[in-house]
Design a protein that fits this description.
The protein is an alpha+beta fold. It folds into 4 domains: 249 residues, glycosyl hydrolase (family 31) (Immunoglobulin-like, Sandwich); 270 residues, TIM Barrel (Alpha-Beta Barrel); 78 residues, Golgi alpha-mannosidase II (Immunoglobulin-like); 79 residues, Immunoglobulin-like (Sandwich). The protein is built from 13 helices and 46 strands. The strands form 11 sheets. The protein has a 9-stranded parallel sheet. The longest helix has 24 residues. It is globular, with a radius of gyration of 26 Å. The N and C termini lie far apart (64 Å). Bound molecules: ligand MIG.
Length: 752
């Protein structure tokens, strides 16, 4: 870290290099409302996985050195750097948005020696490091009214104020609660909302790190990392949406997916044979429950060897998948990083021959234990290893596999965590596990994405458990091993919306819950959240009670069908949102605070959300409840099903029996729908039915072939629909590069 008096500075393009008595640092203008602050490392530092290319744009700025304070001033921000390398950010109107805390850390509660002994004697964990400084640490002064959002995937509530979290990709099988510090993903991005304004901070450091959000002391919040360099971005903007646009401009946006990936996915660990999978597939069609995708968990492999197929239980490679395909199904297969230590097994042999696996500091190939037993770990940090792994995807795609599910890539291991000094690579430079751990899943997902793209030319579908900031460019995510618990259904909403605020627009939870046994009622309520989740997959652990839609009783089946059908009707709306996301980075599932940040009622809303800007859903998340308290923000809202009118800016208690999820549409909203299909493409040319709600509005609808990259060369249509009060909708083509709809129908909702 840089410290002491500032002794000099120099400006070079967008960068202001600073020299302190002790160390050097840099303030770099990325654009007028985004500033990077970093300690300039002598060796050039670690390659950023989140920010892959220099995103800075030529920007006008001035530099003033007055009374020992260096002020860097753009059209939107002023950054003031003080002696001691304290940095403050001011908005153009002079408001101090974000200031370094000048004092030392002062934990309000510390653990005395005696208490520590007592805790140990009783067999409790003694909290480590209370008040202990980190190798890299930034303290920011708190105004006292901060709300914190983002942070990727953490447990707990929408607003993270008062909590502490760790960024260290972790597979912890215990029941998740809000006391959990880390899950599978590390996205060190934080949005702060307070009276004075909103801003984001992104700490691009892959070592184990933490966020302490006014838990240690209400006067400050801090970020700390155990290694690496200080490197963070201050992300400004007019509002929260702008902050997200800027953050995703920096780290990348979720690309437009294939349309079928937005359908319903069925999965279960423990489908033991081709027969069992066939039966699942047939049951969906027989019961007319739409389904697009069947996931193959580890059972399909030969002895858990990745890129193999168990012919004994799953038949000839490609046969089952071919059959499924003819019935409209897409197959997604799981691939873990651990390669079975097994001479004669081609993946192991190739990796050994080419020096592709991580090693001990002594230079031996390192092994640990995962599903196949003793296993070795591809060093995905090396470009050659990623290319090799990309090439392997073709083994799957040539069998007809349509997408790949990456699991266990924290990396997880059964015989204790990989030691910190195991040697991986940062491109071609050796770096220890301590530095590479949090980007292991990212590198694996990236290799998988590139392989699928090369092999198929289609938009790759990858789903990963572990990731880092920026992985959204390559992969969708699911939140890992939740359980069939009401508290986990409740947690699913803040989890998915915070992932969305952190760039991960394409995310889902295991619908029905992974561990523990689901109940009919829980499944009915979870499918009501799933229907709006960007990734809609029912998945379950081996040994748990079955939770496919028909597993319980007729009523549960009907409710599942109702919401899966709703999902299929809403496909064009969801697809439009994905298209928007590629352009703006704004998520599909949104907390109300994203569009109504000045309304205090939205700051802590954990149990309702917006789907895009127009649709609001308020699912019941409590066992036994048949009423829901819904907050409707400012404006006029209409019930989605009967267009009953509600004045916003207040709470309502609405009926929500087991088969109802309260849904509302904002005045002027138009929602494009298609009739239900059993799978995407069953009807290649569905009619567009535009649900038109009262009020004035404009809506732009996007349509393309839903599969490949032709849209990037203009092969798409853009329909603009304009509605003035009391008038019929007017349609206009904004872009035409794809066959038009045969039929467009306007369904006027309500009495206007
Ligand atoms: O240690 O492949 O989160 O979705 O079913 C368990 C078996 C390994 C963990 C994943 C879960 C998957 C399971 N896997």
């Amino acid at each position: 870290m840089a410290s002491g008096k500032r002794t000099g500075y120099r400006v070079e393009e967008n960068s202001v290099y600073l020299v302190f008595e002790d160390g050097a640092a840099c303030v770099k203008v990325i654009q007028s409302d985004m500033i990077q602050v970093f300690v300039a490392p002598e060796n050039g530092g670690q390659t950023s996985q989140a920010v892959e290319t220099d995103r800075s744009v030529p920007t006008a700025f001035t530099v003033k050195d007055e009374d020992g304070v260096l002020a860097v001033c753009t059209a939107d921000l002023t950054v003031k750097v003080y002696d001691g390398f304290y940095v403050d950010f001011y908005r153009k109107d002079g408001v101090l948005l974000c200031a370094d805390y000048r004092g030392k850390r002062q934990p309000v509660s510390v653990l005395g020696k005696k208490a520590q002994e007592l805790l140990k004697a009783e067999g409790h964990d003694v909290p480590k490091g209370l008040g202990q400084d980190h190798a890299v640490q930034v303290l920011k002064a708190a105004d006292g009214d901060e709300k914190f959002y983002g942070l990727g995937d953490k447990t707990g509530f929408l607003n993270k104020d008062g909590y502490e979290f760790e960024n260290w990709n972790t597979d912890n099988p215990q029941t998740q609660t809000e006391a959990f510090k880390a899950l599978y993903k590390s996205v060190p991005f934080l949005i702060t909302l307070k009276e004075r304004g909103v801003y984001g901070l992104f700490f691009d450091n892959t070592y184990k790190s933490c966020f302490n959000l006014r838990k240690e002391n209400e006067a400050y919040y801090f970020y700390g990392a155990d290694g690496g360099e200080l490197n963070y971005y201050f992300i400004g903007g007019e509002n929260m949406a702008d902050v997200i646009k800027n953050y995703t401009a920096l780290t990348g946006r979720t690309p437009l997916p294939q349309l079928w990936t937005l359908g319903y996915h069925q999965s279960r660990w423990g489908y033991e044979s081709a027969e069992e999978i066939r039966e699942v597939a047939e049951t969906f069609r027989r019961l007319a429950i739409p389904c697009d995708t069947i996931h193959f968990d580890i059972d399909y492999m030969d002895g858990f060897r990745v890129f193999t197929w168990d012919e004994k239980f799953y038949g000839a490679p490609g046969e089952l998948i071919g059959e499924l395909r003819r019935d409209g199904y897409k197959a997604v297969t799981i691939i873990d990083p651990g390669v079975k230590l097994d001479e004669g097994y081609f993946v192991y042999d190739e990796g050994i021959a080419n020096d592709y696996f991580a090693k001990t500091p002594e230079g031996e190939v390192y092994d640990n234990w995962v599903w196949p037993g003793a296993a070795v770990f591809p060093d995905f940090g090396k470009p050659a290893v990623r290319r090799w792994w990309s090439g392997k995807q073709e083994i799957l795609t040539s069998m007809g596999v349509a997408g790949v599910w990456n699991d266990m890539n924290e990396p997880a291991s059964f015989h204790g965590e990989l030691p910190a000094d195991i040697v991986f690579s940062d491109e071609d430079k050796p770096l220890p596990h301590a530095a590479m751990h949090n980007i292991y899943g990212h590198q694996m997902a990236k290799a998988t994405y590139n392989g699928l793209k090369d092999a198929t030319g289609k938009r790759p579908f990858v789903i990963t458990r572990a990731c880092y900031a920026g992985t959204q460019k390559y992969s969708t995510v699911w939140t890992g091993d939740n359980q069939s618990l009401w508290t986990h259904l409740q947690m699913a909403v803040p989890q998915l919306i915070n992932l969305g605020l952190s760039g991960f627009a394409f995310a889902g939870t295991d619908v029905g819950g992974f561990g523990a046994d689901c109940t009919p009622e829980l499944l009915c309520r979870w499918v009501q959240v799933g229907a709006f989740s960007p990734l809609f997959r029912n998945h379950c652990c081996e040994g748990c009670i079955h939770q496919e839609p028909w597993s319980f009783n007729e009523k549960t089946l009907q409710i599942n069908r109702k919401f899966i059908e709703l999902r299929y009707r809403l496909l064009p709306y969801l697809y439009d949102l994905f298209r928007g996301c590629e352009e703006t980075g704004l998520p599909i599932l949104r907390p109300l605070v994203l569009h109504y940040e000045n309304d205090p009622e939205t700051w802590n809303l954990n149990s309702e959300f917006l789907v895009g800007e127009y649709l609001l859903a308020a699912p019941v998340l409590e066992q036994g409840a048949t009423k829901k308290m819904v907050y409707l923000p400012d404006g006029v809202w209409y019930d989605f099903s009967n267009a009953a009118k509600y004045q916003g800016g207040r709470y309502y208690v609405v009926d929500a029996p087991l088969d109802v999820c309260p849904m509302f549409v904002k005045a002027g909203g138009m929602i494009p729908t298609w009739d239900v299909q059993q799978y995407v493409g069953e009807n290649p040319d569905p009619a567009l039915k535009l649900l038109v709600f009262p009020g004035e509005g404009r809506y732009v609808h996007y349509r393309d072939n839903g599969e490949d990259f032709a849209y990037r060369d203009g092969a798409y249509n853009l329909y603009s629909f304009v509605k003035e009060a009391g008038k019929e909708v007017r349609m206009e083509m904004l872009h035409e590069g794809y066959p038009r709809y045969q039929k467009i129908e306007y369904v006027y909702m309500g009495s206007e």
